[in-house]
Amino acid sequence: MPAGESFYITTPIYYPSDVPHIGHGYTSVAVDALARWHRQGGDDTWMLTGTDEHGQKMLRAAAANNVTPQEWVDKLVTESWFPLLETLDVANDDFIRTTQERHEKNVQTFFQRLYDRGYIYAGEYEALYCVGCEEFKPESEIVDGTGPFEGLKVCAIHSKPLELLQEKNYFFKLSEFQDRLLELYRTRPDFVRPDSARNEVVSFVSQGLKDLSISRSTFDWGIPLPWDESHVIYVWVDALLNYATAVGYGSDQETFDRRWPAYHVVGKDILRFHAVIWPALLMAAGLEVPQGVFAHGWLLVGGEKMSKSKLTGIAPTEITDVFGSDAYRYYFLSAIAFGQDGSFSWEDLSARYQAELANGFGNLASRTTAMIQKYFDGVVPEPADYTEKDLEIQQIVADAASKADASIEQFRIDEAISSIWTIVDALNGYITANEPWALAKQSNSGDEAQRGRLGTVLYTCAEGLRALAVLLSPIMPQSTEKLWVALGAAAELGALQDQPIREAGAWGVLRPGSTVTALAPLFPRVEQTA
Ligand code: MSP
After folding, report:
1. Residue 34 scores a pLDDT above 50
2. CB neighbours (10 Å) of residue 140?
3. Which residues are Zn(2+)-binding (predicted)?
4. Residue 311 has pLDDT above 70, yes or no
5. Band of the pLDDT at 530, cuts 50, 70, 90?
């Protein structure tokens, strides 16, 4: 993507019926890393996240706590969902709540438009509903209950009984969009990624689409339909609209034209809403469909999708309190192939923290800065003539930077990190092979040539670290910032987040003469894990 283009990316908006767990945090840090990368690449970037506050799930959570739904969501959003962004160092540009006027009013505008265009009609409905999913379930996701729910039909995802709902609803003519959707997936093969998600969506739509119930009349916690206020808009379609209302749909055309369409990153559990229903709604309204939908996998704990309702939920702070937010971000983004499921375990987290962060990256940074302090009084040395081994490092840095950028374009964050990590591994090997301490000894005993060689070796390490700081800053903003300052780069080159990431692989950016300062261990030893 050429620099300067609009890059609008979203997380799903989360249900604040309960507190966040590491699965929610996973989506948010992934989107944040992608947004930071593009922002640093000079793209006109906008990252949106937020909360999905209507619907029956919320109504019941509030009732169970003896407060109004508005009080419940206000409390949860303020006490748990805003703080999550700080806990995980997420630099979102906006946070939308579906109870905000900017959303509610323009959702009504949108549905009035669909109604006026003839895409909505009234009908009777009877089907099994899962409040956990906030969805009428298709046959394929209904299973027989076991244990306490023996004899009942339960949701395949939540394992909780389904409720038979029978009411007058308004329907959206989703069935009319089958051909246009299939055409969309065919002409834009990247619309749904990865391929496994695309295949699932294509096969689902190929089997034919049923019209979608878009209103409910048995409760009132939602946005009223503008032409029939006895109905509230179905929570899922209300929620999908957030992506448009947050960037000015219905209120600020200029901003909307600048930002829309968006890239949506979602968990695979909510892929169909985003890749089928959402584009159909947009087509019906005469708006552009999203740039693309990327479905990531689930975090599994003990082999099952982690969730609060199944009591496998882990709070993000349980991890960040021990390992820090950079380690959280690094771990989930590097250890799980983005798009596939991944198992979480404390042992794996702890082992990778020690091997990759503390011993790999952290140690490289400490050793290099300490040696420049010791052998060159804290001044980045001028490199002398480069040998083949030094040029190899330069090539590795250039390749890693361009491969990482290509991977990020494809939303493959894990691949990008593994390309960047070739620099960490190569530099650690380079230090071992070049033995700067031995060169220092020889130069102390008067061997001038070795002094020059020592300068080249340490410049190579410091410049490699400069590239690493730039390339890793979207993933680990805190430790890279510390490294950036310690290398003297902040004083000479300006703020880390202003360094053009797509030029990170160029050699010779760190200026000889920069002042290197002490660097506390970036990833201190963790004595005990939970
Ligand atoms: N409110 C809807 C989304 C509306 S978007 C218009 C919703 N909310 S949610 O809070 O239940 O989940 C939101 C997202 O959290 C999921 O799509 C997924 O991205 C993430 N995850 C929730 N549990 C997860 C795991 N166990 N693993 C990975 N991601 C998980 O659905």
Report:
1. yes
2. 8
3. 130, 133, 155, 158
4. no
5. very low
